[in-house]
Amino acid sequence: MAANLSKKGENIEGKERERERERERERRGRERGGEGREREGERKERERRESESGAGSRERGERWRARERVKGVERAREEREGSALSQRARRRDERAERASASLARKTLALYLSLSLSLASCSLSHSLSLSLSLSSPLSLS
């Protein structure tokens, strides 16, 4: 039994089992995509217990690195989603621009067609009027 006690008289095996359970909880949380992050109150309570029991800074450092990894994964996912959103917006803008250009071309074609028709009618009317005026009128 003396082999299971640290210099301060603490149970080494119990602490090791607790650390293993904590690592397993963090691993399951990472597998679920960061949903398993511990709540703020639980984290503070655990840190208070560790500081009272004299737990080493190595374990705190490991947990800090694990939290930072989770944050990094979340940040990368948000950036990917953000870039996907911006790509969709860019494609939507390009489609709107093409539709606008197409509408402008159709409007210009219609305008030119109407102008040409009006010019044709005007010319035809002018010709018929000049022909009717130039032909000799019979007064008898």
TrEMBL record:
Residues 1-99 are annotated as: Disordered. Residues 7-82 have a biased composition (Basic and acidic residues). This is Uncharacterized protein. It comes from Dreissena polymorpha (Zebra mussel). The lineage of its organism: Eukaryota, Metazoa, Spiralia, Lophotrochozoa, Mollusca.
